[in-house]
Amino acid sequence: MGDQIQFIVEKLNQEPFRKNYNLISFDSLESLQLLQLLSDVLGEIDPKHAVDIREELPEQTAKRMLHLLGILKYKPPGTVSDLSAFRQGLVTGSKAVIHPVLHWLLQRTNELRTRAYLARFLVKLEVPAEFLQDDTVADFNKQYEELMEAFKNLHKEHEQLKISGLSTAEIRRDISAMEEEKNQLAKRVERLKKRVETVQNHQRMLEIARQLRLEKEREESLAQQKQEQKSQLFHAEQRLQRAQVQLKEMQHVVADSKPESLMKKLEEEINFNSYLVTEKIPGEVESKKTSVYYLEKVVAEPAMTQADLTALQSELDEVNAQMNQLIEKRMITYEPTDSKFSMYRQQASIISRKKEAKAEELQAAKEEMSSLEKLREQKSSQAHGLEGSEVLTEDEFKQYVSKLRSKNTFYKKKRLEIAEITAEYGILQRTEELLRQRHEAIQQQLQAIEEKKGISGYSYTQEELERVSAVKSEMDEVKGQTLDNMSEMVKKLNAMVTEKKASLAPVIKELRQLRQNCQELTQERDEKKIQYDSCVAGLETNRSALEQEVKGLLEESAQEESNYRYINCMKRNLEIQLQRAKEEMKAYMSPDPQERRRAVREQYTRIILDQENLGKKLRDKQKVVRESHGSNMKQMKMWQDFEQLMECKRDCFLKQQNQAAIGQIIQEGGKDRLVL
């Protein structure tokens, strides 16, 4: 069910829905929202169903959805009673009904969209039989069925063309290119025909050329067959070499080993494998399961904010502090018997860690050995492919050096012979050049004589016929030699194969015995493995049941512990409040005035009295201010008028002083003019 919801959420978050749901928000949807979501998905399949369900009655919504689901061939699980429950759940918006429908629809959206499109034209209208008695209605019904069949055929052709992937433009381009190439080839053939028709005996020459082409094709096919047989021989030699190497390895293992050593190796391997199966691999599997569980838990939770991370960090710090306190308490209450057990525990943990480290080293060494073995086989196959051989021993290397020295002397002799032949080749080449010049001169004289006699081209035709006949005879000889060589090679190959079979017969016999022993051991191992698997399955079942029980008890214990802490905190708060109330009553009822004065009630009473006195004083002050407000305002107005009057007098005095200074300056200026 969780995988189903996960798939639905992933599909709804993609195009074209883009709902931005997560597992929690999707699971918290109400029935009306689920029905609207189902209607949206059906509307994506068939646009006619993209409606708002709030604008129609619940019965109409259910009828519309059931009709479309019937067209899409959705089969609800269960019997007839379950079908009625399905209809009721679809009306009420039940999650148990809508989730499977959404999962089925989102799995095959494209297919259902095509089916809904075809249903618009292929769902046949049922006409009552009494209406079909009318000829007009019967004719229309027949035309309707014919059009339906025509639509089916057209749709099939359309789908086939879509699958084929061929477009008309590409086909036209290919046809035009092929026609252009055809025209070019036709023009070339015409030009060649015109050139050949001018040559004498061109029909015979064409026939000879055709025969030559056929013989060349036959020669190529024979060469290809020869190459294939060479490759088959090479592969057979490779298989033989590999079989010989395996035989040597098996003989070496059999020669160097005894039954006791083989049994010891098998016991060591069985112990190692049993350790891996019983201790190492289950621990790794359990750790992987735990990590996967925590990862799934993290994925299922909603996105965390910085505040959530801060709260988790603080909670983690508190848990670490509690752990440290518990460790300190344990160290305080440490006993000698516990020290002995702890020493043994430490030794056991050290041994187990060393054992795990050695097992990992052994596993890595085995993997490295297998990789090196594969690399060695690869290198040996490459060496065989390059026509190489195995690594030589000391005696073989000495023989190889002596052969190399003899070949070196032989090479020097042949090199001297090649130098002599090269010198002679230079002389012969010069002689050939002189003879070619004489031949050209004689040929020119012969052509001149033929032109005089009226038989030009006779000598050229004669030479060509002789040359073609000579080439044909040489090719026949080569073919005969090739066939003889191939038959001899086939005989040699058959003889070599027979010889190898005879030499490998005892080896194959020994190998069969070893295979039989291997099969018996494998059968015994399989039986032991079946017993082990059944035992492991039973233990695993018991372990899982115990784990579930322990997990439930741990959760119950954690819940009870949290309840206990909460109740303990509430109890402590109530005790503190009760203690404060007792102290207050004691202070209030005490005959000592000093003690009573320290009571909270007395303190608040004094504060209330002080505040009441302060309020009374402020009210008296407010009353005095109200009574003297009118006279004070009138006096303030008079002072403001007096201030304006004094400012006006000051301005007039300043103006009068400025005018007197200006008149004095003018009089002094007039006196100066008179003196001048």
Automatic annotation (TrEMBL):
Pfam families: IFT81_CH
Compartments it resides in: Cytoplasm, Cytoskeleton, Cilium basal body
Domain IFT81 calponin homology stretches: 3-126
A GO BP entry: spermatogenesis
InterPro entries: IFT81, IFT81_CH, IFT81_N_sf
Gene Ontology CC: ciliary basal body; intraciliary transport particle B
Statement: the UniProt record of this protein carries the keyword Nucleus: no
GO molecular function: tubulin binding
Keyword line: Acetylation, Cell projection, Cilium, Cilium biogenesis/degradation, Coiled coil, Cytoplasm, Cytoskeleton, Differentiation, Phosphoprotein, Spermatogenesis
Keyword Mitochondrion: no
Coiled coil: 137-253, 309-382, 504-584
Family, per entry: Belongs to the IFT81 family.
Described function: Component of the intraflagellar transport (IFT) complex B: together with IFT74, forms a tubulin-binding module that specifically mediates transport of tubulin within the cilium. Binds tubulin via its CH (calponin-homology)-like region. Required for ciliogenesis. Required for proper regulation of SHH signaling. Plays an important role during spermatogenesis by modulating the assembly and elongation of the sperm flagella.
Record protein name field: Intraflagellar transport protein 81 homolog
Gene of this entry: Ift81
